Amino acid sequence: MRVLSAGRVLGVLSALLVLTLAAMVIGVLTGPADLSPEQVVSSLLNAEATPAVNDIVRKVRVPRVLLAALVGASLAVAGVLFQALLRNPLADPYVLGVSGGAALGGIAALTLGASLGLAAGAVPLAAFAGAVLATVLLYAIANVRGFVSATHLLLTGVVFNAFASAGIVFLASLAGFGEGNRIFLWLIGSLSAARVDLAGWVAAFLVIALAVAWPAGRALNLLALGEEAARQLGVDVARQQRVLLLANSLLVGAAVSVAGLVGFVGLIVPHLLRLLVGPDHRLLVPAAALAGAAFLVICDTVARTLLGARELPVGAITALLGGPLFLLLLRRHHARAFAP
Amino acid sequence: MSAVPALVFDDVALRLGVREVLRGVSLELAPGEILALAGANGAGKTTLLRVASGVLRAQRGEVRVLGDPGHALAPRELARRLAVVPQDVSIPFPFRAGEVVLMGRSPHARRFGLDAGEDVARAREAMQRLGILALADRSMLELSGGERQLVVAARAFAQQPKVLLLDEPTAHLDLRRRIELLAHVRDFAAAGGSALVVSHDLELAARVCDRLALLAEGEVVAVGPPAEVMQPRWLREAFGIDARVLAGPDGVPLLVPQFPPARADAGGGEIA
User: Fold this and answer.
1) Which among B54, B77, B92 has CB closest to A87?
2) Which CATH superfamily groups domain A64-337?
3) Which residues of B touch A237 (CB under 8 A)?
4) Boundaries of every domain in chain A
5) What ipTM was assigned to the predicted interfaces of this complex?
6) Which residues of B touch A1 (CB under 8 A)?
7) Are B132 and B97 spatial neighbours (Cβ–Cβ below 8 Å)?
8) pLDDT, tens digit, for every residue of A301-330?
9) Which chain B residues have a beta carbon less than 8 Å from that of A282?
10) Burial status of residue B229 (CB atoms within 10 A of its CB: 0-12, 13-18, 19 or more)
């Protein structure tokens, strides 16, 4: 019988931690600039490296890898939470439009921030607010007396995403974010223009959300059985839902405010993890944080190097992987819904 | 101690939308007692169980669980006293059967809790008794409806409640499994637990219950020993059927329902 013992938790999490650290090391060692591992290491140790190497390693690669890890962890955990709360393995903050809401909030703060004299922290906070509003809207439309229709969820997400994208383009054009490139990167999701000064905010949001979600692992398991079963097994359902949806919005707000609309991480990572370690949220939540970090660091490293000096947006890589997986899962979900 | 009833419905009334689903239901369940509850579809049986388990709140009257009003108990405390075997189970994630049974230990676990040795022992024991230990490592997505029903029944037993509510627990089970599950409920009651069993299978339920209650349109129309309640008059009132009642060899009545006269225009048969 599969049991969640301390040994199993430690085993899985240490294996994933090794994977994440390995991905980060590879990420720092790899890039379009042709640096040898010795050069990178000596720069990190602040030895006699040349200033040019120092700039690349310490100002470009290391922050980039750290941001990718933070964004990946946030998106993967958000996917886990959303899937449990909506009892739907297809739920993903990107597909359901919550990322779109966050992006709209973030771009509003970015474009108006300069004229209103807002601090940098306004962007993640506004993205968080946008995610909360999108979640409220999603529930208001798709949740009818406790019953959440998958079709309604997906349609609401699709339409809201289209609306949010239009809003983003509109706001950005108004503010004269003229060079369409920045808007493009925000819409498809990229770390190339990521603001390193927001890393502290993102890390703080992630830590708070994990501090809420990991201890709620057991409640998430029960909520995945359904609201009624959760209540009957001792969960204060309404309270847990509120707290976890807020944690979810923190995660999405954090990720989107630095990387824009990177899609499908919250779908791919939890799905693979359920195959590998099972669906127990007491393990799945921290495992998703580590695996999500590793996953996005790898994707971003590919995005930086695949075409040589020309960089791909990382959102294009995750969408190329996630789109087909989503369709496959949708097909299977559909088949199961009509199974005898 | 025995003076405190295990479960009391005291004039429970509830309206859902415009429909008065429960119109003042009063029932009492003593420690060690099994009460079967039957009635037509839509009579309010499942709603009554939902009120008892805290999912719905009565608009009038109250439910008391081991003496305390159910709505005043924290969800965790209520779940330690009372467990539910629901009618239908669908779980969208590949939890294994054993993991689902272990979830029954949640009300007893520490908040952050891993699965402790005692939890695993209780879960195994519950599965062993219901004959599903071999399913422990199978995914819930692969189990049949009947197997899933036994898994959630095992979960409820692993919860170690004082009161057990079962909603059509035998609906998807074959005859042997039905008998085994009800025998297990009987053992639970013999050990001091109380059970409220909703069932459409009157004859089978009557064989394990101490009393039988019939619910019609949100009201209790009859409650008492099965032989007294399974009478043509009450069956007509609860189900709108005519039935002959014969004395069974074990003292439990046998029902012979009367079918309505055959109709020629109901379709089927030869195509003209």
Assistant:
1) B92
2) ABC transporter involved in vitamin B12 uptake, BtuC (1.10.3470.10)
3) 75
4) 64-337
5) 0.91
6) 96, 98, 120, 123-124, 136-137
7) yes
8) 999 888 877 888 999 999 999 889 888 887
9) 114
10) buried
